[in-house]
Amino acid sequence: MNTRTRVLIAEDEPLAAEALADWVREMPQLELLAVCADGESALTAIRLHRPDLVLMDIQMPGLTGLQVLRALGDDETRPAVIFTTAYDEHALAAFELHAVDYLLKPFSHERFVEAVDHATQIAAPTVEALQAPPTEPLTRVLVRDQGKIFPLQVEQIEHLRSDNKYTALASRGRSFLVRLPIAAFEQRLDPMRFLRVQRACIVNLDFVESMTPDDNSQLIVQMRDGTRITASREVSKKLREQSI
To answer: Which of 65, 97, 130 is the last residue of a domain?
Structure first.
């Protein structure tokens, strides 16, 4: 019985594809099935070969890597996927699709091995997790820090503050900048835990210390980390009406 993890590569840059193939061949626990140079051939090859793991670029001719993964739907043979890309703005979408990891080019061989080791450990039980409906609240978000991308548990996010393009996620005294507007998060956050107190700010009620009205009857939200946020007039009114 073949116990090696069967791998398919989807990468349109020849040098990058060759490097990935070499790294896969160097790992005895992996078996390289095929290398595809565009999204449509990757989708066909995944359905044909049924690999355990796919190393896939996001920006490819034809279908993007995200489109390939969406096209697979809830197929029970859907593989674990590690995205390899030069663009970090797709991290949230990738994680919503339950990608195992997200390697930001240029990445080191050490980082590649780390991602593959993680993927091979969870490849077998991932099928059920991959089928989670996209309408469910987010439970994790991919964030970038010191050249690495890692999952941040949504329940650990204390507050989110945004301009029109970026959102800063505050957690445990640190701030992680994500290249997405706050509206991209709002519809996917648990409304029983997260509250949008103003246009550019959402707070996690589990981390709110107090709410105190100011001279204009707007509530000042005091967070446990010391951050003070003024709630909008409309939100302040609703909160006062809901208080017992």
So the answer is: 130
Low-confidence ranges of the chain (pLDDT < 50): 1, 122-134
- Given this model, what pLDDT does residue 80 score? 84
Q: For residues 11 and 37, is the Cβ–Cβ distance under 8 A?
A: yes
Q: For residue 118, what pLDDT is reported?
A: 75
Q: Provide the domain count of the chain.
A: 2
Whole-Å CA distances, 159 to 71, 149, 153, 166: 34, 20, 13, 14
Using CA atoms, how far apart are residues 150 and 91, in angstroms rounded to an integer? 10
Residues 17 and 124 in one domain: yes
3-state SS record for the chain: CCCCEEEEEECCCHHHHHHHHHHHHHCCCEEEEEEECCHHHHHHHHHHHCCCEEEEECCCCCCCHHHHHHHHCCCCCCCEEEEEECCHHHHHHHHHCCCCEEEECCCCHHHHHHHHHHHHHHCCCHHHHHCCCCCCCCCEEEEEECCEEEEEEHHHCCEEEECCCCEEEEECCEEEEECCCCHHHHCCCCCCCEEEEECCEEEEHHHEEEEEECCCCCEEEEECCCCEEECCHHHHHHHHHHCC
pTM tops 0.70: no
Render pLDDT for 77-112 as a digit per residue (tens, 0 to 9): 678 889 888 876 666 666 666 677 888 888 889 889
Residues 17 and 105 in one domain: yes
Radius of gyration of the chain (CA): 21
Tracing tokens 């003070």 back to the chain, one arrives at 228
